[in-house]
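Hi again,

Forgot to attach this to my earlier email, sorry! This is the prediction with flavin mononucleotide bound. I've pasted everything inline since the attachment limit keeps bouncing my files.
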Amino acid sequence: MEFKTDIFKQFDKKWALLTAGTEDRFNTMTISWGGLGTIWNKPVATVYVRKSRYTHEFMENNEYFTVSFYPEEFKKVLGVLGSKSGRDMDKMKASGLTAVKAGESMSFKEAEVTLVCKKLFRQSLLTENMPKDIANTMYADNDIHDMYIGEVVEIIK
Ligand SMILES: Cc1cc2nc3c(=O)[nH]c(=O)nc-3n(C[C@H](O)[C@H](O)[C@H](O)COP(=O)(O)O)c2cc1C
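Structure tokens for the complex follow:
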């Protein structure tokens, strides 16, 4: 397994798709907050999903998720997948991306790289444990993030 990147730019500037579910029922959304690292001697990806997202339901109900990265030309598509909800429309179809199986989860053929992750941990980001200014600006509506840590079990290029 190898993945070379500038981690401070990888999520923030490039964005990614977070996908969970199985071939017959899955959802995807754009993320730009996340991390890659190590815990419990395992390579992991960490993502943050607000409870209001349709994808949250899929993160809760599935053991695996994927984080996939795309060439620059797909930025517009990622913009759409990050502003429309799978609750309201078949946004995967509308995106024009080609869904493919990725390990025990799903990704898209157009991805440069897909990290297949096995869920290890979930924790809500409680506002009482963060600086007040961040709590006030990011969570005024109380729509908090759940943090998911997944073991990277496969890297598909
Ligand atoms: C660039 C970008 C980055 C985003 N990053 C996140 C994120 O890290 N976590 C999150 O919960 N939502 C994030 N979003 C918002 C979701 O992608 C958006 O609400 C999406 O429509 C949710 O889709 P769903 O309801 O089908 O899950 C981001 C949106 C954009 C455009």
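Residues 15, 27, 29-33, 48-50, 53-55, 79, 82-87 surround flavin mononucleotide (CB under 6 Å). The chain has a mean pLDDT of 96.

That should be everything now.

G.
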